[in-house]
Design brief:
The structure holds 2 protein chains of 2 kinds. Chain A is an all-beta fold. Chain A is 0% helix and 56% strand. Chain B has strands at 5-7, 10-14, 19-24, 32-38, 45-50, 56-59, 62-67, 72-77, 86-94, 103-106, 110-115. The mean pLDDT of chain B is 92. Classes of the chains: A mainly beta, B mainly beta.
Chain lengths: 113, 116
């Protein structure tokens, strides 16, 4: 069964901490994405990557960075966590091209206190 | 930022009812339209990817239609069952506003509750 695995289901961090959210896919997909989901706002794209070491900003990149050193792994980094980054974070991947649906991870619920 | 609208926001139906939801999206520069089902405590799951005007897709009791000229898609569920209870998301793919790669823009979803 194909999978996108996110390293943590729940995470609590303190304001100002550097936070790493890890995502691994086993489908050899070229594209990987990080979204956050907040009530009433839907899924919003933070960053995505279409190849190793390549990245593009999404709609809400401020306060985040990403790393893709290997094809299967895409990390989201909160350089200095703030309370307004408390959210559900979803990773997704898909193959290259326009006809493929995304495969999502199960999400990480991050609380910044 | 592209706007993708879904209606209704939420819907309560009885088991056995048929139901439908709407997704509205920009009618220009269309690449693809996705539908996802997101059950509580699970990952969003892809239902359909539609790329051509007039596309109709079906998966069991769920089907979807696409009108790219007028910018809407309908999702239909025939004979709803309690296990159909989920949030249904549509997502539009068009060219990136910033000139980068294409990416999906999601609507806020329609939350369906099917009462036994």
């Amino acid at each position: 069964d194909v999978k996108v695995t996110q390293s943590s289901r729940y995470l609590v961090k303190r304001t100002g901490e550097k936070v790493f959210l890890e995502c691994v896919q086993d489908m050899d997909h070229e594209n990987m994405f990080w979204y956050r989901q907040d009530p009433g706002l839907g899924l919003r794209l933070i960053y995505f990557s279409y190849d190793v070491k390549m990245k593009e900003k999404g709609d809400i990149p401020e306060g985040y960075s990403v790393s893709r050193e290997k094809k299967e792994r895409f990390s989201l980094i909160l350089e200095s966590a703030s309370t307004n980054q408390t959210s559900m974070y979803l990773c997704a991947s898909c193959p290259a091209g326009l006809r493929a649906g995304y495969t999502f991870g199960s999400g990480t619920r991050l609380t910044v206190v | 930022i592209l706007n993708v609208e879904q209606s209704p926001q939420s819907l309560h139906v009885q088991e056995g009812d048929s139901t439908n939801f709407t997704c509205s999206f920009p009618s220009s520069n269309f690449y693809a339209l996705h539908w996802y089902r997101w059950e509580t405590a699970k990952s969003p799951e892809a239902l359909f990817v539609m790329t051509l005007n007039g596309d109709e897709k079906k998966k069991g009791r769920i089907s979807a239609t696409l009108n790219t000229k007028e910018g809407y898609s309908y999702l239909y569920i025939k004979g709803s069952q309690p296990e159909d209870s989920a949030t249904y998301l549509c997502a539009f793919m068009g060219p990136s506003a910033q000139g980068g790669s294409e990416k999906l823009v999601f609507g806020k979803g329609t939350k369906l509750t099917v009462n036994p």
